[in-house]
Design a protein that fits this description.
Layout: E1 7-15, H1 20-26, H2 32-40, E2 43-51, E3 56-63, H3 68-77, H4 79-89, E4 92-93, E5 110-111
Antiparallel strand pairs: 1-3, 1-4, 1-5, 2-3
Amino acid sequence: MAVSHTKRVCQIIKLKPEAEAEYLEIHKAAWPGVLVALSRHNIADYSIHYYRPLHLLIANFKYVGHEYEKDMTGIAADPETRNWWKMTDGMQESFEAGATGSGGDVSWWTDLPEVFRFEGAGTQSQ
């Protein structure tokens, strides 16, 4: 898929309550190789928020490249990222039927549609 502008992505997944402390701790020092892979594949401004009452992880990032699917495949092929996912996937519960883990045929995280955006005067989109 060719993208001529910044694509925003928002995703959710459930964090297993018993994994909360470990998940939050490991994200204080995300593996440098994983961050390099994200950058190399045009991911910018990535953040994950946590809504504790529902054990909900909310990820937001900007894709600034031109070949989204190719870059997502590249991230999934990165060995250090795959090892990171092996560690973190067990701490999460997907909302997607048939999902077996990050990088699988069925998305592990659930993509959410954007319903409103305001970037400043004169830039509202829907």
